[in-house]
Structure formats: structure tokens, C-alpha cells
Amino acid sequence: MTATYQAHGDIAVITLANPPVNGLGHSTRAGIVDGVNRALDDASIKAIVLVGEGKGFSGGADIREFNTPKALQEPSLHTVIRVVESAAKPVIAAIHGMAMGGGLELALGCHYRVAVAGAQIALPEVKLGILPGAGGTQRLPRVLGLEQALNMIVSGTPVRSEKLAGTKLFDQMIDGDLLPGALSFARGIADRRPLPKVRDIRIAHANADGYLQFARNTVRAVAGPFPAPLQCVEAVAAAVGKKFDDGLKIERDLFLALVQTPESKALRHAFFAERAASKIPDVPADTPLRAIRSAAVIGAGTMGGGIAMNFANAGIPVTLLEMKQDALDKGLATIRKNYENSMKKGKLTQEQLEQRVGLITGTLSYEAIGSADIVIEAVFEDMAVKETVFRKLDEVMKPGAILASNTSTLDVDQIAAFTKRPQDVIGTHFFSPANVMKLLEIVRGAQTAKDVLATVMDLAKKIRKTGVVSGVCDGFIGNRMVEQYIRQAGFLLEEGCLPAQVDKAIEKFGFAMGPFRMSDLAGNDIGWYIRKRRYVEKPDVTYSKIADKLCERGRFGQKTSAGWYDYKAGDRKAYPSDEVNRMIVEHSAEIGVQRRKVGDEEIVERLVYALVNEGAHILEEGIALRASDIDMVYLTGYGFPLFRGGPMFHADTVGLSNVLMAIRQYAKGQHPEAWKAAPLLERLAAEGKGFN
Ligand code: 3HC
Ligand code: NAI
After folding, report:
1. pTM score > 0.90 for this model?
2. What is the secondary structure of 510-570 as a DSSP string?
């Protein structure tokens, strides 16, 4: 059992012992009920203390049990809380570290709560697409008042325990060690009767109905496709307007409905996917790490500047190296401007700005970077330039330094071979803007040492990125897949669509931005440059030439105020372009394609299944370690809709046999060569399985 029982004189202590976060799985729940019953049966026990072992009180219900029979197996969390609340002897929750979700709900069912400072107090269920389902929406407003409780429940944001001192949530804040403090508190109240119950507290508010209506309006406006936030308001409304037990029932019904929604399943998938991504099967968690106390970045352009900011934001001093003084000055000035913009938005104080800028030093000399623990190269995307830089780095960097490349398309193994220490070379593929985007693809070369990989994974966390490991291949995980997506988008134009229709359809599906608006933002010339090089190497790959024609007209996107759309000065809005639309229609005629009306469903399927099919190849080749890693890449780097959980999870939701059926159908169209179903997809579909 994952809860233990110990008598400390006349006080029983039940310790939740279910690492890593004392999730309230079945065996822990059963342990608590057994412990309470044992204490009640023992005449020498006067009070019961509930405490958590390890890093906190409890992180809540065991999310892994959701949608399994164990989640509802008695004693359920409701039963546990009922047993605790109706116990004839006082039960005290002693909180440290965190009391979240079901953990906080359990504490609210106790007669008393004591806490040390620094504990994270939260009902974060909404972030998993659900609401607190064990009385949290009914009890938290009773101890914190309607407004603060509603804010916490709708946002899921943790509040530190000391900030809640003085509310009815905590009967006492404990200075010093928690358990002795809790035992002493327990002895002080052991004989007090009646036992206080949160359910008996009345919620006082001068204008509850008005406030709730205001909350509904505000929440509706920001909840997007997620149903849970609004349901949180409804559950709290029940706490105000209904009897306690009726409110509890409303909360329960809403919880059970939400837990089944695809949005909640997607959010839970993303939660576990993020944690799974940090695990590499052949690199043990206890692999010794190389210390990263200083960094260097080569190239102060678009990416180099953003990468340097990441280090400065994490308090790591970083030296930025350029070829020429003016490029260096420009790069440093851009960094300062970015920080100033953050300051204007209130995200940074002047002092923080100066501190961060102060951590970034510019240089033109390789001698100045030799002692850095890691160096990230972000120079032009040209193998000859990379070769010069890596040969130089091999000369000047101290032994054991990590040599990383931010290349987006070049072969990391070839880059590693320019050095005599390929084991120290790795790819760190940041996404633009590098100081903002969460994704970091970590490219493992054939010879990359395990401790280098482990160190860079750890560094990703320190600089607040989601690190996902990719093997070496053209485009790595993200761009290799997006190439197929963009390819389909081009074919759709030839067959009958215009850019705005494609973008609208996929944005309605939930993408932050459609492929054409995205290309205009990134710069159409980047893709043009890559195609010129790539498709010479791969002459058999078909693609629509419309994008090349666009570039031949100098329509590079927002930076030239003209791309797939027209742009007006000082306005990022995309206006459909008659010139481009005409060009597209003429192009179809030139290549002899009879334009037809293409439905939105076809647009979405072709774009998304192109991603899925390439993802399946990537998975089968071992470029990605697991399907959920691919989902993380798309959720954090490409604006794939979170409520759909990523392309591979989405495919699982649709059913792989349905995906395969659609792919076979599209293979009968204009471009069968682009629709060769991945063998893994065929196999899993035949077996009735999913990717995840
Ligand atoms: N159930 C099961 N496993 C959980 C869990 C939970 N509630 N919370 C965290 N874990 C696991 C993680 O998957 C991870 O496992 P791994 O080591 O095998 O990958 C491990 O615990 C550590 O998690 P983190 O890396 O996130 O550790 P941190 O120390 O950074 O954070 C935390 C700890 C703040 C508790 C964070 O994990 C968290 O926010 N967890 C989610 C909490 C939550 O949403 N609780 C509500 C659950 S729903 C509920 O209670 C329903 C109820 O109302 C009926
Ligand atoms: P950029 O052209 O904005 O910047 C490159 C910088 O490197 C320039 O300032 C240049 O002066 C400097 N430089 C060139 N050769 C150098 C040398 N030998 N020594 C020192 N400095 C040198 O290019 P950008 O966009 O920042 O790209 C850099 C790298 O990042 C490329 O490999 C690119 O493929 C990759 N990348 C780019 C992304 C983007 O969206 N721009 C996204 C992800 C990766």
C-alpha cells in the first residue's frame, strides 16, 4: 500500500507515500481509508495527521488512472474525503511542497489544515481539460471567498501557501519542521468539538449573481475551443446557489462529462508527452552531466541573438562572436531592443534588463570563447561556412566543451566530422524567434556522446525549452514533416484553391496560422533557396512551381509587403492579392489542370495526413523516439492545435484505418507519388492499433 501508518503517542500519522508526487491512485486511497479506520478503532489515538512523503503533500489524482476502471474503484477519492470528513476524531492535513488538485481537495475535506511556507496550492485540473472533481469547486470558495477561489479554479495557477495565510484555508502556518509542528497543533485541538467542516461554511458575497455573470462573459471570451473553463464557473456557481450536496453532484456530473471530451484527452496526452520527451531509453536518468556555467554563440543574426538571450535569461554568461564589428553591433542592438520591448510590456524591470544585457558580451575573436562550456553555431546555412567555423572551434575550444550547431537542414554528422571530437558535437535546432518559441529539437549525431545529449536535454529545461530528440535526417522531425504539408498546400492551389481558402480551412481546424500566411511571415525566399538546392539533389520529388513563380516576382512575404498576400505599411494583416490569385489560375491552365471546387474537409485532411504519413516514416526510421515526441514538436514549434493533441494523437483519435483509407483515396488524385502510405501506418491500421 502506498500510504503508511504510524502512531506518535496519541496522534496517528498517515503518510502518503506514492512517488514521485503522491498521486492519489487506488492503493494510496485505500491506504488512507485503512489508516483512518485504524486510528478510529484505536482508543489511544486522539487525532490523525495526514502528511506527504518526499517533495510534497500530493499532486492530486493519479492522472494515469483516468479512463481506466481503477479511477472509479472504491475507495474513490470522494469516498476517502467522506471518510475523513465524517471521522469522529480530528483529521489534520499537514502540507508542504504542493497540494494540488485532488491533494488540495483531500486537505479541504480534513477538519484542519496546517502548512509550511513555499507550498504550491492549486486546483490545476482546468489545464488538463477537466474541473476539480472531488469537491474542490464547492469547498475552495467556502475558505477563500468566491472571487479568489474562482480565479484559482479557472486559471489553475498555483498560489504559494504563505500568501494564503490568514484565510480559512489554513488554521496555522508552521515555522520550522512540518511534522513536529503538525503534531503539536494536533495535540492542541485534539479534544475540541464539534469538528469543523468546510462544507458548513457559508459563502458571503455582496453580488454573487452579478459577479458570476461577469465571470461567464470573461471566461467565454478567452476559453477558445476548451469547454472546461466555463464549466468551472458553473460548478462554482452551484457552490453559491445550491445546498452543499447538490453542488457536489453538479460538480461530479460536469467532471465525468469533461473527462471524456477529446479536448481533455488531448491536454492529458500533452502533459505526459512533455515529460516523456525528456527520457531517452539508452541514456540513463543518472548520466553525469557536464557543467554549463558559460556559453558562446557564433553569429549574431536572427537566430544567434535570440539564442544568446536564452542563456542570459537563465543567468548564464554568454559571448557572442561575429565576423565584423558592424554585424556585432547590430546584433547586440537588436538584443537590447528586444529586452526594451519586454520592459515596455511590463515583463521585465530596468534592473533585470541591465542584468541580462550585462551577461552578453560581444567579440570578434575566437580566443575570447575558448573557455566556454558550450558553443552554439548560428552562422549562414552553408556547409562551407559551417566547415570553417567548426574547424576553428575544434582548435580553440577547451577539451570537453560541447560544440552545437543550429543548422536547420544540414547533416550534423558531416559537421561533426570537421572536428577531431565528433562525440562532443550535437545539433540544437531552435525555432524563430529563438527567445520565444518553446521547441528545441536536439539532434543526436551518430557519434554524439551520451553525456553530451543528457547535458543538452538538461540545458533545454534550464532555458525553459521543450527539448525533443531527433536523429539526423534532412529537416529533422519538424521541417521534414512540414515539407510534405507545404507540398500538399502547393498542389491544392494548382487543383483549385486560393491561398486564403487553404489558410482559413486549416486555421478553422485550429492551426495558429495557415501555410501561406506562415510562409509570408517566415519569408518565401527561404523555402525558394532550399528548394533550389534540395530538388536538384532529388529530381524525382514533385512539387508545385507556383511558389517559385511567386519568388521570381520578388514577392518574399511581409518583408517585401507582398507575398501570397498583399500587405500594407504598418499592418500585418494579409489581404488577398488579385495578382497572385490570377497567377495561380493561369498556372493551373499552363500545366493543364482543370480547376475544381475543393472542400475544406479535403484541405484539412490533405495537409494534416501529409504530416501524419511523414511522421509515421520518421517513427519507423527511429528518427523520433516515440509518437508523442512528434506531437510535442508540432504543439510547441508549429502551432498545431493543442486541443487536438498533435498530429499523431489526432490520427489516433480519427482512427488509423480511417486515415489510411483517406490517404489511399488521395493517392488516386493528381499526385499519387506524394501519397505512398508509410508501412508503419499500414501495419498499425491493420492491427487496429494507434501510434501512441
Ligand atoms: N498523477 C500521476 N503522475 C503525476 C501527476 C499526477 N497527478 N503529477 C505529476 N506526475 C508525474 C509526472 O508524470 C512525472 O512522472 P515521470 O517522472 O515518470 O515523468 C513526475 O510525476 C514528476 O512530474 P514533474 O516532472 O512535473 O515534476 P515537478 O516537480 O516539476 O512538478 C507537479 C510536480 C507540480 C505536481 C507537476 O507534476 C504537476 O503540475 N502535476 C499535475 C498536477 C495536476 O494537474 N493535478 C490534478 C490532477 S487531476 C485531479 O486531481 C482530479 C481531481 O480533481 C478529482
Ligand atoms: P542570419 O543571416 O540572420 O545570421 C547569420 C549571422 O552569422 C550573420 O550575422 C553573419 O554575419 C554571421 N556569420 C556568418 N559567417 C560567420 C562566421 N564565419 N563567423 C561568425 N559569424 C558569421 O541567419 P539566421 O537566420 O540567424 O540563421 C543562422 C542559422 O540558424 C542557419 O544555420 C539557419 O539555417 C539556422 N536556423 C534559422 C532559422 C530561421 O528561422 N531564421 C530557424 C532555425 C534555424
Report:
1. yes
2. T-SS-HHHHHHHH-HHHHHHHHHHHHHH-TT----THHHHHHHTT--BGGGTBSSEEEETT
